[in-house]
Amino acid sequence: MKILVPLKRVPDSDTRIRLKADGSGIETDGVKFAVNPFDAIALEEALRLKEKDPSLEVVVVTVGRQESVEQLRFGLAMGADRAVLILATGTLDSLAVAKVLAAGFRREKPDAVFMGKQAIDDDSNQTGQMLAALLGIAQATFVSKFELDRSGDCARCGRETDAGIEMIEVSLPAVFTTDLRLNEPRYVSLPGIMRAKKKPIEELDLLALGVDAVSRTTVLKLELALRRKAGVRVKNVDELISKLRFEAKVI
Amino acid sequence: MQQILVIAEHAHGTLKPSTGAAVGFAQKVCAETGGSFDLLVLGSDAGAVASAAAQYGATEVLMADSPALAEPLADRHAHVIAEVARSHQSTLIVATSSTFSKDIVPRVAALLDAGMVSDVIGLQVEGGELVFTRPMFAGNVIATVKLAGAIKVVIVRGAAFAAAPALESPSPLVAVAVNVAALPSLTQFIGREEKAASRPDPTEARVVVSGGRALKNAEDFERLIGGLADALGGAVGSSRALVDAGITPNSLQIGQTGKVVAPELYLAVGISGAIQHLAGMKDATVIAAINKDGDAPIFEVADYGLVADVYEAVPELIAKLKA
After folding, report:
1. What is the pTM of this model?
2. ipTM tops the 0.90 cut
3. Nearest CB to B304: which of A124, A165, A243?
4. Residue among A121, A130, A236 minimizing CB distance to B110
5. Is the separation of the CB atoms in B149 and B85 below 8 Å?
6. CA B72 to chain centroid
7. pLDDT tens for residues A56-100?
8. What structural domains and CATH numbers belong to chain A?
9. In chain B, what are the domains?
10. Which one of B119, B187, B251, B265 makes the best mutation probe of the A interface by having the most chain A beta carbons within 10 Å?
């Protein structure tokens, strides 16, 4: 069995985002980059399956510039077997990335794709669903419980929906997008980092994959959101009620 | 001229009010560029939902009604929506942000090879082109984007758009043939752990009372947060910490990865105010916060802040509101 885990390079979740002066993008100088936290959860789940079945192969993949190799190394240090870097320049939107990943999928022929439900930079929540559609395979999004059937032909998932947890069974191969409560990713250990140095990282060119990855989305500009200002401190419950009732008139 | 397809969302035989946001967006596009919109209802025995949808002024309410669509399985729903979009030569597909649409609609976009924008909060028309604004980076950045291609797909934030008042003459209901044999069957529905909801949905409520880490267990959450919400006729919400701790269900989580709310009053009780939480509530009209820690970041966004132990302040607040 083989699981493909796409990892996205994103600014660390604690970063205070600054913009370039012309609004064309975020300021990356001095910014620490990390694996998208939801993708780390996806990789952790694949590694837990590998612990139960050592014959299972976990392949991490990313689409981006050369610097994204750092995130692949992190994935290898966590325990993935090998990595694929698909080199692409320019900004790719979710559909373009899904097309690239679909080409990667056809090359690797995994039984499942585990990936984050959204990336914490653009917060789009699209790529996994699009990948499943392009491949004509099943999807289970927002997964917080995962159980592989003994047959290896299907998996049962708990999905976090607005109404509560939904349970579905999906035929493999399928794309699973992971939610926060699926697991807590392990820390990368020093031996893990040492072992990762010997693991292979394959580099592929977008052109060699034969993908037409034209983005249909154009970002015209970015602006910092207006920040709310701190209001007043009230002394006690009576004053809070009075302010909400007579000043804000919301109760 | 846009030919818009709006996807209706419903549960338990009732049209969700949030569908109105997608309709409001479609109405705005039509007003700016010309065109018309249809509403699509997918489900099983969804006649009552379709009748409710008929009040929104759509050219037609399209009903894909089949037992095969009883549960919102993404493979089937996306297949039907894409078929309808093709047969109606849709140029724009619109849905309101929810786990339902976030699951299904990106799949539709890929089936149609269409670009997509999620969580749209603003719309302008520049030179006949639609230009969208949407939040990124946990709401810290607002992006202005446009889409290329003959079909565009958008999911809009519920609080950002509102439907124009209902029409007196309802839209005609038109059945869409569902070829069950052609539907994908890659997914089977097993069940749903649904909590009986005695309170309004936080995305639809005028008042949301939200609890955080200061609440020690589910009983205290119900007594203090639930009690305060009931005293105010509002909904309850939760920070991620309480969901992770198993104290509250995931369906209550407010934030970057949970629900995004914009009520008239958001009352944050014992919530520190991490940026991921703020992303889900900072568009509330009024924010009030109660927290023991006077340095908690929630006070940087709160209009009214009370530094107090929630175990003392909330019972007093409930008693005085009821008095």
Report:
1. 0.96
2. yes
3. A243
4. A130
5. no
6. 16
7. 999 999 999 999 999 999 999 999 999 999 999 888 999 999 999
8. 2-247 (3.40.50.620)
9. 2-182 (3.40.50.620), 207-322 (3.40.50.1220)
10. B187
